Amino acid sequence: MKNEGNTSDKIIQLLKNSKHPYLSGQTLSKSLGVSRTAIWKHIKTIKGMGYAIEASPALGYRLNLQDLPFNKIEISSNLKTSFVGRDISFYKEIGSTNDTAKELAAHGAEQGFAVVADSQKKGKGRLGRRWESPEGVNIYTSVILRPDISPVFAPQLTLVAAVAVAETISQFSNKPAAVKWPNDILINSKKVTGILTEMSSEMDRINFVIIGIGVNVNMIKRMFPEELKHIATSLKEEGGKEISRTDFIQTLYLNLETWYKRYLKDGFAPVRKAWTDYFTMAGKRVKVQQQGKTAEGIAVGIDNDGALLLREKSGNVARIISGDVTA
Ligand code: BT5
Q1: Measured by CB atoms within 10 angstroms of the end CB, which terminus of the chain is less buried, N or C?
Q2: Distance from residue 195's CA to the centre of ligand 1 (Å)
């Protein structure tokens, strides 16, 4: 069974790298040392994996390179990172990528290991909220990190991820991305990404952190439930064109790795600076809901720990460490 998978992978690579658009069954069977019937069976398997393969009796097989599926093979090919996403588990459907990543991390999965899904049945937000996760259009991924930092600094990692996502969006969209403290990325004031950070730790040591990222890439308006239609959006809705999820996630992993390394080496200051550049709410009047209480004031920015600074009516500047901000 394992060999079969390998032969299918090899056929995909041969079709991708072929100088001629078509490769005959005979050429494939010779290159791989298997029968033409075996090749035919593999082609069937490969089609079942979502690859668009055209078969011509006279010319052979041709892979449509413009219509490649979103899967482990494509995400792994030409990935430029050194550890983030180097090893991944890909699921067509999953409960929540964060839950699976947590289980894998508890069983020793290494730093950088990523879980990716095409759809989630139980996509999670903070405080038990739901993350809408339809199939075929978006990115749902959770990356395992094992930073050697005190658990009190873990919330900063959400901001590290937010900068990496905002930067990635800026590379793919001509609309500016804005961060909303602590874990949203917005375009045109509508949510396009949510980040869910979960941690397993002891008093003074982190076992692992899971960075869960949901990006609405090619979701279209009618796919959003009614209550989200006016507060959520996607890159496609904003930019008009379809974006390759493979290209996006590869760039996201690279940006996440770069910012994470910078954070570990240089501390929070460069992250704070980059985050502040995306913080368009600075100077605006906001409300912050936190466990039944509401604070109101002018959003000033974030401090050296990543807490939100809110200038209240009295002139006092409050440090907010968790909550939901609304304009
Ligand atoms: C978040 O929570 O924004 C964190 C979302 C994290 C999702 C990723 S997907 C991969 C990984 N696996 C998971 O199971 N989760 C992570 P919060 O700030 O609590 O916001 C949740 C709120 O966002 C909901 O109550 C809705 O109002 C809104 N929402 C839900 N689905 C959305 C979507 N697809 N796009 C935009 N907004 C959405």
Answers
A1: N
A2: 7
Atom of ligand 1 nearest to the CA of 97: 12
Q: How many CB atoms lie within 10 A of CB 17?
A: 8
CA of 217 to the centre of ligand 1 (A): 14
Rounded distance between C-alpha atoms, residue 281 and residue 247, angstroms: 29
pLDDT for 6: 87
pTM: 0.96
- What is the pLDDT, as a whole number, of residue 5? 57
Same domain? For 164 and 299 the reply is no
Rg (CA), the chain: 22
pLDDT of residue 292: 87
Does 244 lie in the same domain as 176? yes
> Which one-letter DSSP state was computed for residue 292?
T
| From 131, 132, 230, mutation site for ligand 1 pocket: most ligand atoms within 8 A of C-beta | 131
User: For the chain, which residues score pLDDT lower than 50?
Assistant: 1-3
Distance in Å, CA 147 to ligand 1 centroid: 24
How many domains does the chain contain in total?
Answer: 3
Residue list, ligand 1 pocket, CB within 6 Å: 96-98, 120, 123-127, 129-132, 140-142, 183-184, 191, 194-196, 212-214, 216, 228, 232
Tell me the three state secondary structure of residue 177. Answer: strand
* Structural domain span for residue 296: 285-326
